[in-house]
Every structure is written in C-alpha cells, then in structure tokens.
Amino acid sequence: QVQLVESGGGLVQAGGSLRLSCAASGRTFSSNAMGWFRQAPGKEREFVAAINWSATSTSYAASVKGRFTISRDNTKNTVYLQMGSLKPEDTAVYYCATQLLRYSRVLSTAPTAYDYWGQGTQVTVSS
User: What's CA 101's distance to the chain center, in Å?
Assistant: First the structure.
C-alpha cells in the first residue's frame, strides 16, 4: 500500500523557518515527480512547489519563490520543503503528493495531476 507521510510542521513566528519532510513507502518514487500543496481554512488547495524525478527541475508558486526550496533524496524516498522568511499568510495544512506517471517532462501545478497524497501537516505562522 502506497503511503506518503509528512512531518515537520508546527508553530513558528513570522520570519522563521521550518523544514517539512515527506517520506514515501509502499513503492519507490524515484522516477516520479513530487509536489507540495497547501490549504488554508476556507480556501482551495493551492500549489506550492514541485520537483521532477531527477531533481534537475523545480517549480514554485510566485508567493513562495525565493523563500521556499524543494528537494528530494531518492535513496530515502523522501521529498523536503525548506521554508524560510515565513509569513502569517503561509499558515495552512501542507500536503505532499506524487504522480503515477514516470519520467514526466512537465511539472504540473494542478492538484488533479497528482495521484497519491499524504495526510498533511499543519504549519502555523504567528505575527
């Protein structure tokens, strides 16, 4: 059974940093793109960042570009999201996701393009 488990969320002051991790189990995802999304209360799930299977290409939402960095370690079947200069508007539940499609050349920002999802981890940024 495929599982994605996020960790690293918590409460942080504005300007602070957090590092989220997403560990995959049940199969290897070394040939699949992975992404991070977030959902704030009353809002739709939105794209944050994505990374291709070989970590040679990344994509970021405009709202986080320059502050967040996505990376992956295929030997550990894990993807990371390093978040810096956090703002109160970054408060949300953060989800990692991956695709069934292997060796994709396109990094999708649409939630519908991803097939497996984690349960989410809460990030709260206080002002």
Answer: 17
The SS3 of residue 113 is helix
As a whole number of angstroms, the distance between CA 85 and CA 21 comes to 18
List 46's β-bridge partners, or say none. 38
Q: Strand pairing of 58-60 and 68-73?
A: unpaired
User: Taking the C-alpha atoms of 5, 68, 9 and 14 in order, what is their torsion angle to the nearest 10 degrees?
Assistant: -170
The per-residue b/e assignment along 19-41, b for 16 or more CB within 10 angstroms, e otherwise, is ebbbbbeeeebeebbbbbbbeee
- pLDDT, mean of each 10-residue run, the chain (127 residues): 93 98 91 96 97 96 98 96 98 96 92 96 97
CB atoms within 10 A of CB 123: 22
Task: Round to whole Å and give the CA distance between 71 and 54.
Answer: 10
Cα–Cα distance for residue pair 63/75, rounded to 1 Å = 30
- Contact call for residues 107 and 59 (beta carbons, < 8 A): yes
